[in-house]
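Table S7 (text form). Paired inputs.
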Amino acid sequence: MKRFLIGFCTLVLLWSCGSNDDPPPSPEGANLIFPLESSECTTGVSVSETLSQVTFEWSASAKTDSYRLIVVNLTTNIQQQPLNTAATTASISIEKGTPYSWSVTSVNSSSGLTATSDTWLFYNAGSQTTYAPFPAQLVRPASGATVQKSLANEVVLQWMGADVDNDLNSFEVFFSDQNPPTTSVGTTNATTMEYTATVSSNTIYYWKVVSTDSEGNTSDSGVFEFKVF
């Protein structure tokens, strides 16, 4: 009987210890609904000559207690004050006639873990009838990265571009070891979103992309930097 009790207690102890090894709950990323990707948002409620209130919407995500709405003005690269909510909608006032990006971070309060949605771009409608392209989103090399050049002493620069009017015309690449980069090294058409640059080892480089549409409207990606081994 004594051996039975010892064995039973050992099993209980092992079970209780094992339960503590369960991974902490990790939330899933939310799916964005509105404003639509690469669209013009015309549903904002005007609150002043320069601002309108836009309602953002996303789907509920599993293992999530709250959401953090992140909205960035792409003209100034200034982020709005993040808005925390347990709901799947939130309304904020943003500038008219301005490009924005938005994303949602799902939060699990018990574990402290988070998950981030995709990032969508949109123009908040203003009085203009034509819009500049969205600023190109620089992808690779990531800003602050250290990269290995190819045997041909080259690095491939990659970005993403979009335009609410669907009239993108070209991308001009500025690349230099000086900041800001003022040397134009090449122009690609609207469907080519990469450029191969010649580099040297142990050098920091700066690059940006200027997008142009068929109306002559332009936008600037802002500057990324990277170092070559």
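Next pair, protein 2 of 2.
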Amino acid sequence: MKHKFTISLNKVTENLELGFEEKWIYVHYKKGAIEKTACLLKNDNKSEEEYLDAFFEDNQVSEEMKKEVKKFLKSGIGHKDEHWNEFTNFLIKALSLNMVFGITIALCVFGGYRLGALLDNRYGIYPTFTLIGIFFGIGFGAITVYSMVQKYFKTSIQKGKGVKKSLNKEQENDKSYPIIDVTIDEVRKAIRAFSDNLPKGVYRTILVQDDNCIDFNQLVPHLGGIPSKKFYMSKETYDLFEENEKQIPLEMDIVQKAVDLFVKEHKEFPMLKFDPLHKVNYFQLKQEQYLKEEPKIQFYITDLDGLITHIKPRKKKMGNTSHS
């Protein structure tokens, strides 16, 4: 989900667009003739505000814009509190329900015991009626609790049946979707539109199946049909690939995870210091046991804060490889 901010500074308009994903933060900034786009990889234990501070400092973002973004991020914390409150309310309800069940059984057993003891005292045949009363109380309590459970979960069961019915209807409707020819750019635009409408905490990786193939049933509203050929996406970098490149996202996800772990522990990228291409150094990753075997595809570390690519760069500047 993307969020846009606009600030008017005299005759200059300052625009900022933020997109928060599971693995990184997308930033697009424009002020006058200055325009900058970056993807900040979240591979360290930092807050979103700390990740953005470095970008703001490098691009001389105005204090007014910084304040607007901070307000937005604080409101996001409030949403987290709401989720926590929902969880605690659920926990309290669950505990309360268990307490009700326990008290119900205890009262039934106690009632059966008291009734049995009363009859034993009256007829002088202790403990016959007492034992009968206790077993009767246990049985009656179990039946009562069972009835309460059935009534309590009735709504949930009905909802579950409703979801199954809707899924079955969707599967039936899938047959009516037209088969269309689309380009990879059209698929990319559809995924972005889909991602923008996702609720907070849900990411576009829900589109990716186990083999990294895209589930186009979810993209039909944005594409108007099911593509005639398959497309694949990396779960770590969100790069798109066609059928002849389907092996790339599988290896890309493995290598990106290894790079992230290496950076997190060593505070530098796994590459040779003076390598102008910034190739991922598989020897380092294997030596530190971040990779089990060397990938067939060579990946390169990009300028997008640690994201990797399979595309060989034309030219890289030599410099320090330490990660800040």
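The first strand starts at residue 2 and ends at 9.
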